Amino acid sequence: MTAAESIEVSVPRILEAPINMECQLHDIIQLGDDHLVIGRLVKFHIKDELYQNGRISMEKLAPIGRLAGNYAPVETILSLPNEQLDSISKKPIDKSEKQ
Prior knowledge:
By secondary structure, the protein is mainly beta. It is 12% helix and 42% strand. The strands form 4 sheets. It has a two-stranded antiparallel sheet with strand order 1-2. A two-stranded antiparallel ribbon has the order 3-4. The radius of gyration is 19 Å and the shape is extended.
């Protein structure tokens, strides 16, 4: 692996990776014996050959996911119906919950 200089952070990135994300630490929250690390993405580096019709091709990227400590290829991409998401996201929330 080849180290490449980052633009926004001092940590180098991996040149051979198809996508690099530069991240700055925002917060670390202790949750029992664990920690939740929250970062802010400040720069993306995406190899040109991943693009197809102005979007990242999942077939060209061939991403790998991690679930419960195991790794697996992402073989199924789901799309949610946008019209349902719009109605859900615009629904007012009643914060005066009656108990």
